[in-house]
Design a protein that fits this description.
It is a single chain. By secondary structure, this protein is mostly helical. The protein has one domain. The chain contains 13 helices and no strands. Helix 2 runs antiparallel to helix 4 and helix 3 runs parallel beside helix 8. The relative contact order is 0.15.
Length: 293
Amino acid sequence: MQFDKTTIAVRERGMLDTLDLSLHVLREYAGPLAAAMLLGVLPLMAVNYLLLGWMAGGMDEESGLPWRFMYHLSLQIYLQAPLAGVFATAYLGQAVFLEGPRLGEVIRDVVRLLPRIAWCHLVIRGAAVGWLLLLMVERHGAFDGVLEGFLLPLLVGYASVVRAFRPFINEIVLLERNPLTSQGERVTTVGRRSRMLHGANVGEWLARWIGSCLLGVLLTLSVYGTMYFFASVAWEDWSQGPLLIRYLMPLAMWMVAGFFTVFRFLTYLDARIRQEGWEVELRLRAEAARMAR
């Protein structure tokens, strides 16, 4: 590992440059990143199907679409997207310094850190709370205004605030590997590191989160619209049937989540460069390694 020879150029970038670089990274590592995202997405898709599958058949009489299912699926994928990207984030962390990192090593790294990941995403950021609220919904009953119309959107709002101002939790846990707690005051825990990294540019993180949300909605509609067009042409049927709603729509959402996993990782690199002079640190570490040899 040579710290001064990275596969991604270490320099400051604006949001548009970072979005453009995200597309290049996706193209360069398309296969491994798709496999890494699937490792995180497939278990969550299974959980969502168990919790929401019964809603997919409840078609609205006017539109013919299962709006209740689509509403809940969108909220759940939004809550779960950072959790789904843990394997992809760990892979990108190795890909910066290594050519062709092995997916098996990435899996072992993530498994070793599962307790920290579970605490940060399932508890602190509300993914497990969303599952518990869905379990409380009466199956095949009417729309519950309190649980579905108030508590779930309130949970999503809370998660949005946390993610807007503390976006880099995956990178801190998986790449910097800080402990959750420590008795020593000098030990940098996940919470302390998060305050150090995020505290200086709160306004910028909020602006990037707002821009990411708007772009995410547009990208999801574009990807799903493309799938819908080709599927309709192939089957000569322009109705949005069960295949499109149950499988292609969540697939479009997860694909966009994968793109923003890459974007968030590159934004994390940019944050470290701007705030901590990371490129200088890498050069010093590389020189120290050469002197040690």
